[in-house]
Amino acid sequence: MTAIRLDAVSKVFEGEHLAVDELSLEIGDGEFMVLLGPSGCGKTTLLRMIAGLERVTAGEVWFGRTNGTRLPPRDRQVAMVFQTGALYPNRTVQENIMFPLQIAGQDDAQAGSTAVGLAQVLSIDSVLDRMPRTLSGGQRQRVAIGRALVRRPRVFLLDEPLSNLDATMRTELRQEIGAMTRDLNVTTLYVTHDQVEALTLADRIAVMRDGRIEDVGTPTQVYNDPATAFVAGFLGTPRINLMSATVRVTAHHRVSLDLGTQSIHLDPTDRRSLILRHHDGAQVIVGARSSAFSLITDQDTANRLTGTIRAFEFHGQQSIAFVHCGIEVVDPDKVGRTTPSHASHDGTHGAGGTPSILTRLRTKLARRPPTALPEFHGPATHRRADLVVELPVETELTPGTRIHLALDTTRIHIFDQTGHRVDRLTR
After folding, report:
1. How far apart are CA 141 and CA 135, in angstroms?
2. What is the mean pLDDT of the segment spanning 128-142?
3. What Cα–Cα distance (Å) separates residue 250 from each residue in 158, 257, 305, 317?
4. Looking at the domain that runs over 4-226, which CATH code has it been given?
5. 176 phi and psi, to 5 degrees?
6. I need a labelling partner for 411 at 20 to 30 A (CA). Which of 63, 95, 206, 304 fits?
7. What's the Cα-to-Cα distance from 296 to each of 209, 368, 407, rounded to whole Å?
8. 3-state SS, residue 161
9. By mean pLDDT, which of 40-49, 78-87, 366-375, 401-410 is the weakest?
10. How many Å apart are CA 57 and CA 350, to the nearest integer?
11. Average pLDDT over every residue of 278-296
């Protein structure tokens, strides 16, 4: 096992497609790090650069004290499991697992014994003599994991290994992967777009977007204390409510957040109130998870929002209400999505010189006009609800019902217009 350090790593593909943009990240010795993000954000490309399967355009990849940026894959002591498993179709399960040891020079008897022992750990010892085409998806992935781990790599890379499995198998294999990698104490980097996998497996999560890291922290940190509006929106089911607001400050320095048709008020001792009272009229984004609201009957309650039920869903352990309050909602996927920042260097960087191509590409991207989205002008009854609210399971409401909601302002996040927090993270 070993620590990994990515130092301002970039990847530009043919056609000037910037896939990874000066990304820096450290993964500790024996740590289980999850790269989480939407499709196309660069997480698989980053994994392949660590494995040596993609050439680094700029920056450096370090394994402990060794600069591995230009090392060939065979010299990195890295094992990788792909989404499809990718087994040798003409070899049995045992022969697939044994193969890396045989290539390394081990005799067949020793390699076979090691393969059998690992197969028992992976619960595939009953299929050692079968061919890959006869296996289920879960079994094939177990074999792929066994083949990757059999030679005890320093670094274990997994690229969406559970995405092709059914829900039951995903849960079962997810637990096994977490337990096994920790038992082996191998440094692990796991790529997924599934927040459940990230939250349940990771020691730390690195959330990616557009080739960059948006946030890094433990699962509880990135969920409860997100650095950006995008991170807040990407994690959590139902998705967090993001509302456009204007800061209003009274003559007595009391701060309220004007949501257009309604307002919420911050406690004078709230650290965010102390920050925002100097920014009267500023535009901000208020984030509130569905659990931060509660149904009330007292219309005199502070921080009360009033709205109309658009839809109501029973989810077994909870009920979800979709409420229209006349509030402007914000799409977290669009917040802060500007062109890449200018290069912090002027021409040489990392392995083999830097890429004036990065500077040229950023200049090119900066000149592109934003794409205008069509506006929706349908009837009010068909408009998307402003808020998604979690209610007790015994609650029963029908569409069209007028309701009052109390918002716990100690549980809201406030972001500026670029999507960054207005206050410091509490980590």
Report:
1. 10
2. 93
3. 54, 11, 21, 42
4. 3.40.50.300
5. -65, -40
6. 206
7. 38, 48, 10
8. coil
9. 366-375
10. 9
11. 95
Residues in the chain: 427
Domain ranges of the chain: 4-226, 234-329+384-415
Extended strands (E) in 1-72:
4-13, 17-27, 32-36, 58-63, 66-67
Question: Cα separation of 155 and 384, whole Å?
Answer: 46
Query: What is the residue-wise DSSP string for 294-320?
Result: EEE--TT-TTEEEEEEEEEEE-SS-EE
Q: Indicate if the alpha-carbon torsion angle 403, 408, 413, 415 is positive or negative.
A: positive
Indicate the pLDDT class of residue 385, thresholds 50, 70 and 90. Answer: confident
The alpha carbons of the chain give a radius of gyration, in whole angstroms, of 25
pLDDT tier for residue 187 given thresholds of 50, 70 and 90:
very high
Give residue 197's Cα distance to chain centre: 10
**What's at 425, amino acid-wise?**
L
Q: What's the Cα-to-Cα distance from 63 to each of 25, 54, 220, 228, rounded to whole Å?
A: 12, 16, 28, 30
Number of H helices, E strands in the chain: 10, 20
Q: Which CATH class is domain 234-329+384-415?
A: mainly beta
Place of tokens 């716990």: 408
Report DSSP letters for 211-236, one per residue.
TEEEEEE-HHHHHHS-SBHHHHHHSS
56 three-state secondary structure: coil
Q: Which residue has the tokens 């094939």?
A: 140
Q: What is the mean pLDDT of the chain?
A: 88
**Which DSSP letter does residue 409 get?**
G
Place of tokens 């991170």: 231
Measured distance CA(79)–CA(65) in Å, rounded:
19
